[in-house]
Amino acid sequence: MAPAGDRKERPAVDPELLREVRRIQIRTDRLVTDVVSGGYSSVFRGSGIEFDEVREWVEGDDYRSVDWNVTARAGRPFIKKFVEERELTVLFVLDRSRSMRFGSVVRDGRPRSMSWAATEFVACLALSANRNNDKVGFVATDGDRPLFVPAAKGRAHVLRILRDCLADPVDPNSDRLAEAIGYAARVQRKRAIVFVLSDFLGAFPERELRLLSRRHDLSLVPCSDPRLEELPKGAGLLHLQDLESGASQVIDAGSARVRAAYAERARERREQLAERARRLGAGLLPIDTKEPVSSRVVAFFRKRELQRRHG
Predict the structure, then answer these.
(1) What is the pLDDT of residue 10?
(2) Are 83 and 49 in contact (CB under 8 A)?
(3) Which residue has the higher pLDDT, 235 or 35?
(4) Which residues are CB-contacts of 71 (< 8 A; sequence separation ≥ 6)?
(5) What is the CATH number of domain 15-43+86-309?
(6) 99 touches 108 (CB < 8 A)
(7) Rounded to whole angstroms, what are the CA distances from 218 to 92, 163, 210, 235, 286?
(8) CATH 3.40.50.410 residue window(s) in the chain
(9) 25 or 176, which is more confident?
(10) Predicted confidence band at 298 (pLDDT cuts at 50, 70, 90)?
(11) Contact at 8 Å (CB) between 97 and 202?
(12) How far, CA to CA in Å, does 193 sit from each of 43, 62, 189?
C-alpha cells in the first residue's frame, strides 16, 4: 500500500493555483525579513539537543551529566556531552476542511479566506526556515488519508508545500483533523517545531495533540475571521450555515441581544482553546483574515524569547 499522501496520479496543476502561490510568495518574501529579524533564529534555540561525545569528567562539569555506565566500566568519572541541534525541522499540520474556505475580508480586491491566511502563515515560517537552512515538512487533511510531504530543504520544496496548502483536498466535506495530527505524531520521529493550523470549530483532537506534544515543540494556530467573532450591525435577518455539517439557521443580526450572545460564544471558544493549549503545554498563535500574519508571528516570537530568557 502506498504511504499516506503518495498519490500515483496527480491532476494537472491549476494555472490559477500557481498564480495564487506566486502572489503569496511575493507578498511573504517581503514579510520574511520581519519574521527573521523578529526572532526566528533565536526563539527556537534549545528546542532540541543531540548527543556529541562521552569524555572524562573535569572539575567544573555538572555531576548530572555523568554517564554512570561508562564510569562504572572505566573506574573513573565520564560525562555525556550534548549540543544544540544545528538543524531544526519545522512541520505544519493543516486543516483543509470546507469551513477553512470561509472568509469575509477583501484585500487588494481579492477575497481572503481562513485557508488563504493559513497559507500565508505557512509561507512566512517555511520561507524563514528555508533562509535559516532548516527542513520543512507538511501534513494536511485529504479525505480518508492525510497528505504527507516529508521534511526537506529548498525553496522549490517550500513552493510545493504552498501549492498543497491551496489545492482542493480529495474530500473537503470531511473533518479529518484528528487523523492528520495522529499521522504526524507517528511519522515525525525526530523532534520538530510543529504548528497545527485550523479553525478548531469541530471536535477538539485532544488525544492526538497530546501525543504530538510529548515529543515536539507544539503550537496551535487558530484561524478566524471577523464574521466568526461578531455579527454586522444593521444586517437584519441572516441565514447562517455550518459549512461542515450543512445545518443552517436564520438569526436576527439587527438584535443587540443576538449580537451580544454571538460575540459571547466566540469569546468562550477563544478562552476554551487557550485553556486547552495551556493544558497541552502548547503555544497559541491566533491568526485571522483581517490582520497581517507577520505581525502576529513576530509578536509570538518576542513573547517566546522573553519566556525563554526568564525560564
Answers:
(1) 44
(2) yes
(3) 235
(4) 57, 77, 78
(5) 3.40.50.410
(6) no
(7) 10, 24, 9, 40, 14
(8) 15-43+86-309
(9) 176
(10) confident
(11) yes
(12) 11, 28, 12
